[in-house]
Write a structure and sequence with these properties.
Number of strands: 18
Helix content: 25-40%
Distance between the termini: 51 Å
Strand content: 5-15%
Largest sheet: 8 strands, parallel, barrel
């Protein structure tokens, strides 16, 4: 039997209410949870009251908390919509009407805490914010403050298929679908919605952006009742539901002869379909589309622009307040590996830059953080700096397709924070990626951050229990990209495993170093793509070297890397601002961790750390494997403080990670030793 101090309900993830609260904290907060007033719509009120009842009972030991919607005088905790609270406590609220987010006020003399929010999502998130503060032992006078939602849209997108599979899913089968039906497990979905709302998520799309024949029917009456049911569950947690749709739907389910976006019958079909959906789901979020990429149909089929394709569908959504998210992952160009002038990295920028300002106001272009495909190291997509008059979403991949597949531990927020803090002009803080995408309040439909889900039917939701940290901190970063990453990491650890100092310091170190560790033993210095084709797990140095998808490293016996310079290469560098063009173009100023993404470099090239390129390849791969060994040792040190189920699952995956790291080390080092004939200066074993 586990002691109560270690016992953990894995389905509750970071919402472990049965422990963590010390007696002093309970005494400080006890009176606030005895009488609570909630001023929100009925559905949201039920969600907040239920959450407070669970927390008060399980964490605070308070049963029978009183709830009301009008007894301000006797209430010690007041939660509500700003517009409703204005009439009773407006003198205490400082948040501006135009600001989206929540505010917490502590009235010491009256022993009251007030949580005020502008939207249902903000109010629920503010409620969870208070709960987390109590768990962490933050005093009432220290929680007061305004928390602005920097991004109006904070979204999780699923790549789930109706047959139950999940594309790039590493945590089991879909929680939504099986055998072409929508599952009836409302409790599972409710628990998931609860987790998402606790980290500030306010939107979700439930099906794969690669929309197959059966999934195309999700916007028909065949699935409408179940879509309505899911929408009702997520609505109670302040989350809007979106669907990924097929650009060719007018043909596939509409019976038309064409999906040409400028055809009037097609335009009218989309208008009719939008009217039909919003009649039964008035608060439906809208659509997500992947067009003209990886065999998906799109406007290029009809010699139309991406803007013409998007605007026809967006126009149908606009009267209902619906949003169209249009992915910029457009690269159907088939590349010949012999032709070094063609560059897949250019595709998104080349496809969209001339269309800036030509999209309707409810179109949001969804742009991957890098120009290629979620590699462990890529430069920031230049399209994020190039578009000036278009709504944008920044797309991160929480599921670990190229970053260990939730077998290998790879804490992604360290990489995401680098992207968010990147200055597109190299100088001005206003050019930071986080500032560019944070358009809430500036444009009606704004922009935001999208994460590709790492959730499945695994007991721990994410397969690897520690991969939950990626989802948790994604939510926190999407709400406010300026948060302190180290504090957010510690918060997840405390909420999940308790506040023992040994656990916090050990897991903090393991998590924050894990992306760097993974990067060390896989593809070096931004070159990417050295993975096993299809599975994308484990090393295969030349696996994608001669494919048609532009996934090359161009290693020969003299050097390695892709020449993307303006002077002698593909000219990709020219897509950046002047500061970064000059930085990346010059070997002496190009960052070493992106060197091989931008340049074809001799193996004897001297890096900024004083090592040759070939020696850095050897050293990093040996070091990466060594650091995985240390990771296992550190995990074992806190065994007595972790519940046995989680401990064993993490240990099993870490052992698999070590085997993977050793294989990467030996395959990569041997490959380059065979290419170059250059020995490791330190005389370590490299297989000939």
């Amino acid at each position: 039997m586990e002691s109560n101090d270690l016992k953990r309900n894995v389905e509750d993830a970071w919402l472990q209410y049965h422990r963590h609260i010390d007696e002093d904290t309970k005494n400080v907060y006890a009176s606030y949870f005895t009488h609570i007033s909630v001023f929100v719509s009925e559905e949201i009120r039920e969600t907040i009251e239920n959450e407070m009842k669970i927390f008060a009972s399980e964490s605070m030991g308070i049963s029978g908390s009183k709830f009301s919607s009008d007894d301000i005088k006797n209430s010690h905790l007041i939660i509500g919509e700003r517009k409703l609270l204005d009439t009773v406590v407006s003198e205490s609220l400082k948040m501006q009407d135009k600001e989206i987010g929540f505010e917490i006020v502590h009235l010491k003399s009256d022993r009251k805490i007030i949580i005020s929010g502008k939207t249902p999502s903000d109010i629920i998130y503010g409620t969870f914010f208070l709960i987390k503060a109590v768990i962490k032992g933050v005093l009432p006078e220290e929680i007061q403050g305004i928390h602005i939602a920097k991004n109006g849209l904070r979204m999780i997108q699923h790549w789930d298929n109706l047959d139950g599979t999940v594309e790039r899913g590493y945590a089991g089968r879909s929680i939504f679908f099986e055998n072409n039906v929508i599952l009836q497990d409302n409790q599972k979905i409710k628990k998931y919605a609860r987790l998402l709302s606790s980290i500030g998520i306010n939107a979700i799309s439930i099906n794969n952006v690669n929309v197959h024949e059966q999934e195309t029917k999700l916007i028909t009456k065949e699935y409408s009742e179940d879509v309505i049911r899911l929408t009702e569950i997520f609505r109670r947690y302040g989350i809007k539901v979106f669907l990924s749709i097929n650009f060719s739907s007018p043909i596939l389910i509409g019976g038309l002869a064409t999906a040409d976006p400028l055809n009037m019958d097609v335009k009218n079909w989309w208008i009719g379909k939008a009217n039909e959906i919003y009649h039964i789901i008035p608060d439906f979020g809208g659509f997500v589309i992947k067009a003209d990429s990886e065999w998906n149909p799109g406007p290029y089929t009809y010699n139309r622009t991406q803007a013409e394709g998007a605007n026809t569908i967006a126009e149908a959504l606009l009267p209902h307040g619906g949003i169209l998210m249009w992915r910029c992952f457009v690269y159907n160009n088939q590349q010949d590996w012999r032709d070094r002038t063609v560059d897949r990295a250019r595709s998104a920028f080349d496809s969209f830059i001339d269309l800036d300002g030509k999209f309707l106001e409810n179109v949001i272009l969804q742009i991957k953080n890098g120009p290629v495909d979620f590699q462990v190291r890529e430069p920031v997509s230049p399209l994020l700096g190039g578009l000036k008059n278009t709504n944008m979403n920044l797309e991160f991949q929480i599921t670990q397709e190229y970053t260990g597949q939730q077998i290998d531990l790879c804490y992604l927020p360290t990489m995401w924070k680098e992207v968010l803090d990147f200055k597109m002009d190299g100088k001005d803080s206003h050019s930071k990626v986080s500032s560019i995408i944070s358009l809430a309040g500036k444009r009606k439909f704004g922009g935001g951050i999208v994460g590709i889900s790492n959730i499945g039917r695994s007991e721990h939701w994410t397969g690897h229990p520690l991969a939950q940290a990626n989802l948790y901190v994604f939510g926190e970063l999407s709400y406010d990209p300026e948060i302190n990453l180290e504090s957010a990491t510690n918060e997840w650890i405390i909420l999940t495993f308790g506040n023992r100092r040994e656990v916090i310091s050990t897991l903090h170190d393991i998590l924050l170093k894990s992306h760097s560790v993974y990067e060390k033993y896989v593809a070096p210095m931004g070159v990417g793509w050295m993975v096993t084709p299809g599975t994308h797990y484990g090393p295969n140095v030349d696996g994608y070297e001669y494919s048609k998808w532009g996934t090359y490293h161009y290693a020969d016996n003299k050097g390695i890397g892709v020449d993307r310079t303006t002077l002698t290469g593909t000219g990709y560098i020219n897509q950046y601002s002047q500061y970064w063009r000059e930085t990346y173009e010059n070997l002496s100023t190009c960052p070493d961790n992106l060197l091989l993404f931008f340049h074809h470099v001799p193996y004897q090239h001297m890096l900024k750390n004083g090592k040759t390129l070939i020696q850095e390849i050897y050293d990093s791969h040996f070091l990466g494997a060594e650091q995985v060994t240390k990771m296992i040792r550190d995990w074992n040190k806190i065994r007595e403080f972790i519940d046995s189920e989680t401990y064993e699952e993490v240990l099993k995956r870490m052992k698999s990670q070590l085997a993977n790291a050793l294989e990467w080390r030996d395959v990569i080092n041997t490959y380059f030793f065979r290419k170059t004939g250059i020995y490791d200066e330190k005389g370590r074993k490299i297989f000939p």
